[in-house]
Amino acid sequence: MASVIARRAGRPDHGDDIIIEAAWLYYEDGLNQNDIAERLGVSRATVVNYLQEARERAYVRISLSQDAFSGHRLAVALKEALSLTDVIIMPDADEVSATARRVARGAARWLPQLLSPGDRLGVAWGKTIFDVAESIEPSAIADLTVLQLVGSMATPYGFSADVCSSYVARRLSADCVNLHVPAIFSTSELAARVRDEALIANQFDAIGHVNKTLFAVGSVLPDSHVVSSGVATRDELRWYVDHGAVGVLCGRFINADGGHVDGPLDARMMGVAPDAMRAPEMGMLVSVGPERVAAAIAAVRGGYTTHLVTHQSSAEAMLAHIQRAR
Q1: How many CB atoms lie within 10 A of CB 48?
Q2: Over the stretch 79-131, which tens digit does the pLDDT of each residue have?
Q3: CA of 127: how far to CAs of 131, 132, 133, 216, in Å?
């Protein structure tokens, strides 16, 4: 379960007193929302708003108790089957979108616990990572640098790759190194010329030295995000699938063993090299949905992943996939 700390110090102004008092009564004194409403002379809905405001202003911080989720029977089984450092399993919700939000919040609570001063955290792109970034509660990790791992691209979600890295950096009070290029160029010659520009070359050098990563993987289905974002056409996607691709990691295609499938798009891609993604210290994979099971297992087998955050039905599907492969 989540452990909660309510902070009464550091009030920015007198108007916050009632918010802090509501948080203290709820989290520290254990009163329910109706009792707090009666004590403060406000409605229950107002109390709900006070508690939400307290979290948004970081007067209340919730940390994930790792043992409660990593001790789940599926987490233990996956950790053993895939030789992972640790696994967190979130419960399924009634709807896919609600399950995705749970997984994102779980990853957001866990991530700061895995970071240390001086780390260089590489952040990927996509709806899952954006949801994680938005769910991170504000905190400060000394001398942390967050780096964008792949260039920007079109997206149906209304945000680009640099937003993901910028949000994570802001939530963790970190420096941010964004990659100021599109994810893919029309020709390999143009991509090579841009990589040689001093500013871009320095950014590529920076992302080549990350020591921890936060990422999700994409499927290779016809409606995959790699197609909807304009990185690959369906014909190009089919070429990679025909050559063994089972997933997409930061715009690069990987096979069932996690190996990089080198193909027609790679010379035009602007992002981290696959070898640099192989986690030297920590790689957190956040995976939601059965369509990403094969890709998630490939990312683990390829050495990109040390920590996995997923949900019950995906975990069960992963274990079944592993069993069938034996």
Answers
A1: 15
A2: 999 999 999 999 999 899 999 999 999 999 999 999 999 999 999 988 899 99
A3: 6, 9, 10, 9
Q: Is the pTM of this model over 0.85?
A: no
Contacts with 220 (C-beta within 8 Å, 6 or more apart), sequence order: 226, 237, 240, 241, 245, 246, 247, 248, 253, 295
The string of DSSP codes covering 132-162 is HHHHPPP---TT-EEEE-B-B---TTS--HH
Quote the distance between the C-alpha of residue 149 and its chain's center.
12
Kindly give, in sequence order, each residue whose CB lies less than 8 Å from that of residue 15, ignoring residues fewer than 6 positions away.
none
- Residues 119 and 144 sit within 8 Å (Cβ to Cβ): yes
Cβ contact 54:25 at 8 Å: no
Please, are residues 264 and 236 in contact by the beta-carbon 8 Å criterion? yes
Q: What is the DSSP string of 235-269?
A: HHHHHHHHTTEEEEETTEEEETTS-B---TTGGGB
Crossing angle of helices 312-325/73-82, nearest 10°?
Answer: 40
Q: Tens digits of per-residue pLDDT, 38-87?
A: 999 999 999 999 998 888 787 887 665 666 566 678 899 999 999 999 99
Angle made by CA atoms 33, 35, 36, in degrees to the nearest 5: 65
Task: Encode pLDDT of 238-253 as tens digits.
Answer: 999 999 999 999 999 9
